[in-house]
Amino acid sequence: MDGISEKILQALSEGGRLTNTELAARVGLSPSACSRRVKELEHSGMIRGYRAVLDPAARGVGFVAYVAVGLVEHTRKAQVDFERALAHVPEVRECHNITGNVEYLLRVETADMAAYKHFHTDILGVLPQVRSLQTYVVMGSPKDERA
């Protein structure tokens, strides 16, 4: 990684739909050199993909929370079973295995508090691996650089 590659990554993280010509101009390379660099970054795995930044309200999301989840057992099987159970749950937008007093931190998005209550009680709360749940409601996101 050099300064040019860093500039390319920064520019693409701010606007993944830049044309190669626009990107090259921003980072000070010729279009062919820029294209080569981007392909190298993709091939190396530094760039894993491109995403659209979605408007939560336009998608009907009015409630966002982070949920800390403690498991009943600290075993690999419990983790795998929990992760498998959440793999296709649309309300769970992110699932992170973390260190500390709990095993997981989830980012959950629902239409409203009633939908979250249903998710909390009838989906997450009934999983046999779950020992504890602690919800942190997002009141605002003054900085959010997720794609």
Q: Which SSEs are present, and which pair or pack?
A:
Layout: H1 3-14, H2 20-27, H3 31-44, E1 63-71, H4 76-86, E2 92-97, E3 104-110, H5 113-124, E4 130-137
Antiparallel strand pairs: 1-3, 1-4, 2-3
Helix pairs in contact: 1-2, 2-3
Outline of the structure:
The protein has helices spanning 3-14, 20-27, 31-44, 76-86, 113-124; strands at 63-71, 92-97, 104-110, 130-137. Helices cover 39% and strands 20% of the residues.
Predict the CATH topology of the largest domain: Alpha-Beta Plaits
CATH architectural name of the largest domain? 2-Layer Sandwich
Rg is 20 Å
Q: Would you tell me the structural class of the helices and strands?
A: alpha+beta
Number of distinct helices: 5
| CATH homology superfamily of the largest domain | Lrp/AsnC effector binding domain/regulation of amino acid metabolism (RAM) domain
Question: What's the order of the H and E elements?
Answer: HHHEHEEHE
Globally, the shape reads elongated
Report the average pLDDT across residues.
Answer: 95
CATH top level of the largest domain is: Alpha Beta
| Sequence stretches where pLDDT stays below 50 over 5 or more residues | none
Total strands: the figure is 4
Assign a percent range to the helix content. Answer: 25-40%
Q: How do the strands line up in the largest sheet?
A: 2-3-1-4
Residue share in β-strands? 15-25%
Biggest sheet statistics: 4 strands, antiparallel
Explain how this protein is built.
By secondary structure, this protein is of the alpha+beta class. The chain has 2 domains: 3-44, Arc Repressor Mutant, subunit A (Orthogonal Bundle); 57-137, Alpha-Beta Plaits, CATH 3.30.70. It has 5 helices and 4 strands. The chain has a 4-stranded antiparallel beta sheet. Strand 2 and strand 3 form a beta hairpin. The radius of gyration is 20 Å and the shape is elongated. The two termini are 22 Å apart.
